[in-house]
Prior knowledge:
Elements: H1 5-32, H2 40-64, H3 73-90, H4 103-106, H5 111-129, H6 136-151, H7 158-163, H8 173-185, H9 195-215, H10 218-229, H11 233-236, H12 243-263, H13 266-282, H14 285-307, H15 323-338, H16 348-371, H17 373-376, H18 379-394, H19 399-420, H20 426-453, H21 459-462
Amino acid sequence: MALPEGLTTWVWVATMSVAAPGLFGCGLVRWLGLAPAHGRAFALGVGYLVGHYVLAHATLLWLWRGQPLPGWLLPIAAATTGAWLWRRAARRPPTAVAVPADTAAAASWSWLPVLVLTLLLLDTFTATGAQLVRYSDEAVNFAAKAKLLYCAPGFDLGAGLGGFVEHPDYPLFNPLTQVLTFASAGRVLHAENRLPVQFFAVALLCMLSAALHRRAHPLVATLVLVAFAGTSFTSMAPTAYADVMLAAATLAAAESLLRWRETGERALLGLAGLAMGAMVATKNEGAMLVLALLGPLVVERVWWWWRSPTRPALWWPAAAWLLVPLSALLFQRAFNRHYGLQNDLVLFGRIADQFASHGPRLLDYYWGLLTDPALHRLLPLTFLVAAPITCLLRGREVVAGALLFASFLLAMGAYSLVFLGTVYDLQWHLDVAADRCVLHVLPLVASGLAAMTWPRRDPLGAR
Length: 463
């Protein structure tokens, strides 16, 4: 019996834009030195993110050069490269890992919640896939920009960016991910292009499960993972918005940095640098979130170095990985300047003028956001209450959770400044953006809250 053409298109796009980048990324992170001791869930999640991020550069180069080769060669070449890198990494002699394997995360039963939640996500992906991408930001911003990148003759984007895309200054990672589906199918798609973006939600669940089981008791880790899955994450995951992508990249960067702090493995710095590059390339807010992540960690590391009696030498080459997010930021600035695009959220001059009128309304809205269990299952509010108390009672045992708490506060403070200086109606801006801003750092909230509620009794927290 012949298969319907629509079904074969879905299978082909899933293979080329989900499986192939995932294989490429898993091979790449293994080649960079990610040890098996860090767990399969973390490797799968960060591998999918890194694979798509690195492949997006090849897709952009392919577009810029006028699509000289059939587009389906991009994922084929990526998958082949990933398999080759995996084999090369497997032949290396095993290296010592500073901490033992994540026994809790490696337990077979810990995969059960992830699998169940993934099946539920796949059901919503299928239902959403029956609808074309034609409304809201997923259509007028991300899909529109992807179609322009793919269809503009000679890669001449000037006229299209001004008249076809609502916010043309947004970074390119999400549109380039959708372009990969067009390149694989050989034509513009109007529903299947959601697929690779949707699977960032699955990658996020894998990484969050690994982070929770690494730092918290298995019972708390499972409960927090299920609670997170019941937040607004569920409604955003099936869409082609970039918010879940940014949340996944932020969690990957934070978890890589924390694991580097605990183990000293240089491969984790590489993963953190690539994840921070993905943050910057996903949304304009990504650069701000990078600073929110790095700030507390840098302060803690400098304090630790200053207090150490031996004053170990600082490994400055590690900072070279910061060139990845820096280059992503410089490229986006150059792209926008070339086409005369400007971010309308850079509004620092208006913050002082509107502080008195917008401040009380902003606090009132945030309070409603925090106390609404339907949106975030009270995870941010619980974190705000529990974190200071836990830091006072447990001290060094919950340093990882304290760093995540500091990053959360910095991120929400920066978002507050954006709302204070908005050029839009404040109520409208909060209604359309505030919940999504919390979603960007909600995985950090879940990980930090679990680590502080019932931390694992091992040397990780103390280090």
